[in-house]
Amino acid sequence: MSFHIVLLILFAALLHAGWNALLRAGDDRLWSMTVMCLAVAGASVIAALFLAAPASASWGYAALSAVLHVGYNLFLVRSYRVGDLGQTYPIARGCSPILVTAGASLFAGERVGSTALLGIALVSGGIIALAFRGRKLQVPSLPYALGTGCFIAAYSVADGIGVRLSEAPMAYTAWMSAMWGLLMPAVYIGLRGTHRLFAMRRGFAAAFAGGLVSLLAYGIVIYAMSEAPMGAVSALRETSVLFAALIGYLFLGESLTIPRLLACAAIAAGTFMIG
């Protein structure tokens, strides 16, 4: 994997941790997530108008990814309802690199070298270790966190295949994100009604900005998957838990113990082996 791709993914990881911390800190996370999606939809539609359409073979994957993203959003919001950022986020993100590697092998015939595979395992193991408190894994939202990880893996593989068929990574990202960004508000309206979505509330500007940040972060990841193995890209992206652990410690009052620092060291070692 080229050095500039590694740097781009690590930058995307930092952005990803930032918007997840923003979502976790919000009072009404479903509303915040939906406002983020409105921002994603608006920016994506504007971008799509200036880009040539992706190849027709990729459209089915874009639509599938959009639906999977909505499922991911709903599960992520539910997992944050009772879990803190330092536990829920590592479980959701930690299981996905292994799942992405397996999915890429099964559906895209992708093979990863032994060193990179060991690095992926170290990253995943280190990330999940961050969720432990002592020797116990007590996460009230564990099923939703694991479900979130499964959705992450599913849409990552769909986008990895789709972007390679698209022949236009930016256009693919724009159209997939536009579909995803429009689907989520439709789901919200079905659950809560139109008036609650568009009412100006405290945190609207921050959520809208978070949506733009999330779009940039995932756009970088989609581009990286057009150039590098999906499993390796996924593992590097999930180093965002390092940034999330630091954000949780500095701004959300969460602990950062010696075992968690050792887990961070394992993630760093895995990152080095992949990159």
Would you mind describing this structure in some detail?
The structure is a single chain. The protein has 275 residues and is mainly α. Helix content is 80%, strand content 0%. The protein has 13 helices and no strands. The model has no long low-confidence stretch (mean pLDDT 84).
Reading the helices and strands in chain order gives: HHHHHHHHHHHHH
By DSSP, the count of extended strands is 0
Structural class: mainly alpha
Separate helix tally: 13
Q: What is the CA-based Rg, rounded?
A: 18 Å
Quaternary structure of the protein: single chain
Strand composition percent: under 5%
Outline the biggest β-sheet: none
Q: Kindly, what is the distance between the CA atoms of the first and last residues, rounded to a whole number of angstroms?
A: 6 Å
Average pLDDT value?
84
As residue ranges, the low-confidence spans are: none
Defining traits:
single chain; 275 residues; mainly alpha; 13 helices; 80% helix; globular
What secondary-structure arrangement, pairings included, does this model have?
Blueprint: H1 3-25, H2 29-49, H3 59-82, H4 85-94, H5 96-108, H6 114-129, H7 142-166, H8 169-192, H9 194-198, H10 204-225, H11 230-237, H12 240-251, H13 258-274
Helix pairs in contact: 1-10, 1-12, 2-8, 2-10, 3-7, 3-8, 4-6, 4-7, 4-12, 5-7, 5-11, 6-11, 6-13, 7-8, 8-10
Quick structural summary:
The protein contains 13 helices and no strands. It has helices at about 5-25, 30-50, 60-80, 85-95, 95-110, 115-130, 140-165, 170-190, 195-200, 205-225, 230-235, 240-250, 260-275. The model has no long low-confidence stretch (mean pLDDT about 85).
